[in-house]
Amino acid sequence: MSTAAHVESAVTDPKLIEERRGQIVRAAVKLFSEEGFYTTTIQQIAREAGVSTGLIYQYFKDKDDVLFLALKLVLETYEHEIPPRLEGIKHPVERLCMALSAYCFIVDGLKQATVLAYRSTKSLRPDRRTLVKEDELRTNRLMEACVRACVARGYMCRVNEYLLAYQYVMFAHAWALKNWALRGRYSLAKYVSEGVRLLIEPFLTEKGCAALDAIRRRNGDFSREAGAAHQKPRRGRNAEAV
Amino acid sequence: MSTAAHVESAVTDPKLIEERRGQIVRAAVKLFSEEGFYTTTIQQIAREAGVSTGLIYQYFKDKDDVLFLALKLVLETYEHEIPPRLEGIKHPVERLCMALSAYCFIVDGLKQATVLAYRSTKSLRPDRRTLVKEDELRTNRLMEACVRACVARGYMCRVNEYLLAYQYVMFAHAWALKNWALRGRYSLAKYVSEGVRLLIEPFLTEKGCAALDAIRRRNGDFSREAGAAHQKPRRGRNAEAV
Amino acid sequence: MSTAAHVESAVTDPKLIEERRGQIVRAAVKLFSEEGFYTTTIQQIAREAGVSTGLIYQYFKDKDDVLFLALKLVLETYEHEIPPRLEGIKHPVERLCMALSAYCFIVDGLKQATVLAYRSTKSLRPDRRTLVKEDELRTNRLMEACVRACVARGYMCRVNEYLLAYQYVMFAHAWALKNWALRGRYSLAKYVSEGVRLLIEPFLTEKGCAALDAIRRRNGDFSREAGAAHQKPRRGRNAEAV
Amino acid sequence: MSTAAHVESAVTDPKLIEERRGQIVRAAVKLFSEEGFYTTTIQQIAREAGVSTGLIYQYFKDKDDVLFLALKLVLETYEHEIPPRLEGIKHPVERLCMALSAYCFIVDGLKQATVLAYRSTKSLRPDRRTLVKEDELRTNRLMEACVRACVARGYMCRVNEYLLAYQYVMFAHAWALKNWALRGRYSLAKYVSEGVRLLIEPFLTEKGCAALDAIRRRNGDFSREAGAAHQKPRRGRNAEAV
DNA sequence: AATGAATGAGTGTTCATTCAT
DNA sequence: TATGAATGAACACTCATTCAT
Fold it and tell me: Which DSSP helix (H) or strand (E) runs through A178?
């Protein structure tokens, strides 16, 4: 549905397809992110990708298709880059904190692309839009699973897991969407540690808080900045769940 | 700066200007919301507004200018419609809850326009973009003021007020931005009451919680659905601040 | 179905529409006739018509639509220009001869356009193609009616009127289609008089032949060339019909 | 002049050339016939012929050259397929009737290709167009020779042999060109027998008519349909020629 | 003040043709 | 010989903007 298989003389070599598509989509993400979908021309993408205009139509059905794969690339980055960053982490609370942190750091690396997703998803044809939304939902479920693990193991009190997970997602996205308002006030690290304080800590049980304290002692408040952990505020105390 | 004062044959009668602009901008908001900025043509706006294409250029400098005023209209709706809904409400906790609720209800009535703001703000020329952002910040400060009042009066523990206020904003916006994912799960009323539970209640002091309980007994959980308040979960208890 | 009513800002003034359409279609017929449909660009038509490219799309849906009206113009010329040339002519045999002659003369003035019709009718969308064919059929019926009148009045023996009429049509068209082969051998007048000899005379009854002879004495063999009638060959004699 | 001899890396083996060309031209005739010259792409021809796009340019100079050979193939089919069908037929009247019949049957098998010839000959470069026209003239001469033989042997009265032969050609072509109008009224066989009645019989001498009658008794009115000959109409009687 | 016809630069897309392999 | 990926010029069509009325 996203391929150029319908194109008269579509390319057949799978390796080449992968390479060219990547090449073109990367150029597209860059330009769409900077200038927006409608103001970026196919010719610009071609030039940025170092190919001819015609070539793009051997790998994509139309401009919409380029956008689709560009957005998929971004959305899949979220989905694929969080798990590796959780690897080896056992403790549910630490996993949750890391998931939030990871999401924010990934978004930080894709700030413009994240904004692009918000700007341009509606420009997609409905069927493709649906597919992109499914990508987003999968990432949401990743976050939700972290929440559930905390609740299941008694580190977090009962909450609306779905909605809380969505807050994490929005919190990460906001780093890109509202970067113009946030970057003057917070470093990314600070933003993440504040996020933990606002959106995780209040829902932890005593046991969960204890775990979080331990983690902070080790990891420094999820902040890479030295001393970022010094300002220990009063935090929510939740009774043991169940 | 947004006017068409530079236009050759600009109209001079201020009353007429206001009327025509409103007429055109309302049409623009409708069409931009439905179809997006780039896919809406000036001719469509003219037809929707019941005027000629040429007329638009007597009241706006260019298409960008129409977008600018359209976005301003949306952003100012947030800013202007929240205060009246808080009128007469004295208790800081209730004000905060009502502010969140009001924001969500306003967004609900402007779902597409809210999405439009996210899609199209970057399409504005930088100077106009800045002005739109300032509109948003003013609304943020409205929310922030509500938080501060709660903290000042000891209903809420010390928090990062700026960021918490931003969570409220994002939470309201999310009702529009992620409506496709949320509407199947929550009614608006339920969404709001869950918002209170996730983003307000955890930060309340005991005193604040007591106040919230009282409000809920009166107002029914900020939910219009009968019995929506029945599922009272364990909620955060915060020690008195300071 | 051929209008530009679907166009965003189609023109509304009927007088203007007629004028502009005529202006553009005339340019199109000229260029399509000379260069063919596919090798003629919209820009060329615009230039030839003395208008801008964009204007064409205010009066035509697409290039196909221009072709459609161009072909209709040609086909309707046949249909509309034959009757006036028969006006005042009473005798069925003379009417038939004049019809054939008129058709050939009209085709002579539209040689390239006639070739265009053969080249490009298949390039039309099926529904429009059908409409053009109906135009052609109406002209055929004009010819057929002339044949029928001759038969009914006993000037012509019973024949397959439909097919004979079609021979007249093809004979006239051939003057355009095969002009490259014919123009070296015959003048148009000679061609017409040979047509009468081949496709009318053989089917005349004695009475019909007598009438034809009288007509020729008056009109000079349907040939404007002096002496074109000198080579009187043996011709078909048909018994009285019925 | 039609070859690809000028092509950089032209193929030299004559046998291969013949084979490849045939393969490609057959595919081209099929596609051009169905879709037209301009709407058929070289890539489609390549796929239909089961070769690569590049290969076509080793056997043809350009797309125009493919069209040229495609049209030649069609035109030569007429020229080459008529004589075999006349083989063994001695009587001039029968030969003439068979020639007309054969032409119609050949056209019937090449309906779309015949239309193609009318659509696309003008798309050829002038020099190539001339060559195609010469092919057509050779077929015309085939028909003309049949007419001449009839006249010479006294079966047909004196006529404009050239033009009559052209009528036969047009009659056959019309079966393709106007098939949309004819196929509802006549079977091919009926069409042919009507053609004999309209374009041959009227010009026969008494001797010729007698011969035709005999032929019909044997061959059934040039119609494959049983009983097609039953409806014997009044037909032209010509006095002996000379 | 208002109209809407006219403009023409700009864009997505196609496809004949080339050429490295 | 044969391939098919790559090219880029060319074209249909759109639409923001202008301006005569």
Answer: none
Cβ-defined contact of D160 to C194 (cutoff 8 Å): yes
Specify whether D24 is located in the same domain as D41: yes
D57-81 per-residue burial string, b: 16 or more CB within 10 A, e: under 16: bbbbbebebbbbbbbbbbbebbbeb
Question: Gap from C11 CA to E3 C1', in Å?
Answer: 12
- Report the candidate in C191, C95, C205, C196 with the shortest Cα–Cα distance to residue C147: C95
User: Measured between alpha carbons, how far is C137 from C116 in angstroms, rounded to an integer?
Assistant: 17
**Residue C161 pLDDT > 90:** yes
Same domain? For D117 and D161 the reply is yes
Backbone angles phi, psi at A185, to 5 degrees: -105, -35
Listed as ranges, the nucleotides of chain E within 7 A of a protein C-beta are: 1-20
Last residue of a domain, one of D35, D61, D87: D61
> With a 7 Å cutoff on the CB, does B239 touch strand E?
no
d(CA A35, CA C111): 54
Does residue C73 sit within a domain?
A: no
**By the 8 A CB rule, do C113 and C29 touch?**
yes
Task: In whole angstroms, give the CA distance from residue D207 to residue D229.
Answer: 20
Domain count, chain C: 2
Question: CA A87 → CA A98, A212, A232, D166, distances in Å?
Answer: 10, 18, 28, 86
Cβ pairs bridging A and B (under 8 Å): 103
Q: What is the dihedral of CA A76, A79, A80, A84, to 10 degrees?
A: 160
List the one residue out of A53, A75, A184 whose CA is nearest residue A134: A75
A229 and A159 fall within a common domain: yes
Cα(D12)–Cα(C238) distance, integer angstroms: 63
B31 & B92 share domain = no
Contacts of the segment A173-180: beta carbons below 8 A, 24+ positions apart: A173/A107, A173/A114, A173/A118, A174/B166, A174/B170, A175/A104, A175/A107, A175/A108, A175/A111, A176/A107, A176/A108, A176/A110, A176/A111, A176/A112, A176/A114, A176/A115, A177/A114, A177/A115, A177/A118, A177/B118, A178/B166, A178/B170, A179/A111, A180/B133
Question: Do B105 and B215 share a domain, yes or no?
Answer: yes
Bridge partners for C107 per DSSP: none
And the tokens for A67? 């956008």
Q: Which two tokens stand for residue A232?
A: 């220990």
Which range, of A16-20, A231-235, D149-153, D201-205, averages the lowest pLDDT?
A231-235
φ, ψ dihedrals at D221, nearest 5°: 65, 20
The number of beta carbons lying within 10 Å of the beta carbon of residue A140 is 19
- Residue at B132: amino acid letter: V
Specify whether B197 is located in the same domain as B106: yes
Cα–Cα distances in angstroms (integers) from residue B23 to residues A20, A123, C108, D148, D217, in the given order: 48, 26, 59, 84, 86
Give a yes or no: residue C117 inside a domain. yes
Position with higher pLDDT, D88 vs C12: D88
Assigned domain for C75 exists: no
> Which domain covers residue C158, as residue numbers?
88-242
The CATH code of the domain that includes A91 is: 1.10.357.10
pLDDT band, very low/low/confident/very high, at D229 (cuts 50, 70, 90): very low
Same domain, A107 and A168: yes
What pLDDT is attached to residue B10? 66
Nucleotide nearest to A55 (CA to C1'): F6
Measured between CA atoms, how close is B15 to chain A, in angstroms?
35
Residue C240: both structure tokens together: 């009285």
Residues of A in contact with B140 (CB under 8 A): 181
Angle, helices A161-177 vs A92-109, to 10°: value is 30
| C98 and C18 within one domain | no
Q: Does B154 touch chain A (CB under 8 A)?
A: no
Confidence at residue C4, expressed as pLDDT on a 0 to 100 scale? 60
Question: Per-residue pLDDT averaged across A49-65, rounded?
Answer: 97
**Final residue of a domain: which of A61, A85, A113?**
A61
Decide if B234 and A162 are in contact by the 8 Å CB cutoff: no
